[in-house]
């Protein structure tokens, strides 16, 4: 069995009731968290979808999701700008979104290689405490490959953020959901598990994930990022 969620993170709000939002909602319910899911439409319209898609989770508003111990962003990156930043002031926000051009199309505002997309999310949600995680593994894989600690099949999930306590809490959540957390560093370092990196879409264990993160600066994408940063 995976460990219990950390005491500071027993209630989870999820914004986005699609593939990854509902997959993580199901894992979080199984892990014993009190889970509420919000989406674009109001809670009363979403209730049946959420009750069917994540039994045990409740249908809540975005405002209520933002008031939970942590709130996971599981909506398209390009839609985050439509969220009311005031609702998220002070909140621990787990950013699972990606500039995933194959799915969502290219969003030029997120093509700046000198900054991670989660830092840009943080600039919109100013006042929120942003931790990037649960973005680089597919929803189906998250659902199928959870395992208890020590199980050789346990996959790793990277975590990056600027607040040590917040990173610890999210790492504890990742562990409780059934994955080995691998801390990648500051929010800027979240760039090392964005789309286009070796770790994005990989199903490695913790040692493999760490090695992929470490190899980033020697990768073609890492060299392009380094060149862009050097030109600042
Ligand atoms: N799919 C994966 O395997 C996976 C894995 C890891 C991370 N991610 C990332 O997670 C995010 C969501 O991906 P997904 O595949 O789950 O997408 P999806 O299946 O299309 O679901 C997106 C959800 O976000 C909701 N939404 C859209 N705009 C919203 C808004 N303004 N306010 C509140 N909710 C809104 C949608 O509601 P409506 O249907 O009403 O528009 C829908 O419930 C993306 O950034 C993706 O890169 C995906």
Task: Determine Rg (CA atoms, Å).
Answer: 17 Å
Low-confidence stretches: none
CATH class: Alpha Beta
* Relative strand content: 15-25%
What does this structure look like?
This protein is an alpha/beta fold. The chain has one domain: NAD(P)-binding Rossmann-like Domain (Rossmann fold, 3-Layer(aba) Sandwich). It is 35% helix and 16% strand. The protein has 9 helices and 8 strands. It has an 8-stranded mixed beta sheet, sandwiched between helices. Helix 1 (19-30) links the parallel strand 1 and strand 2. The longest helix is centred in the last third of the chain and has 14 residues, at 164-177. The radius of gyration is 17 Å and the shape is globular. The termini are far apart. The structure holds NADP nicotinamide-adenine-dinucleotide phosphate.
Which tags fit this structure?
232 residues; binds NADP nicotinamide-adenine-dinucleotide phosphate; Rossmann fold; 16% strand; alpha/beta; 8-stranded mixed β-sheet
Short description:
This protein is α/β, with parallel strands linked by helices and 232 residues long. The chain has helices at residues 19-30, 43-53, 62-66, 101-104, 117-124, 139-144, 164-177, 206-215, 220-230, and strands at 11-15, 34-38, 58-59, 70-73, 92-95, 129-133, 156-161, 180-185. Helix content is 35%, strand content 16%.
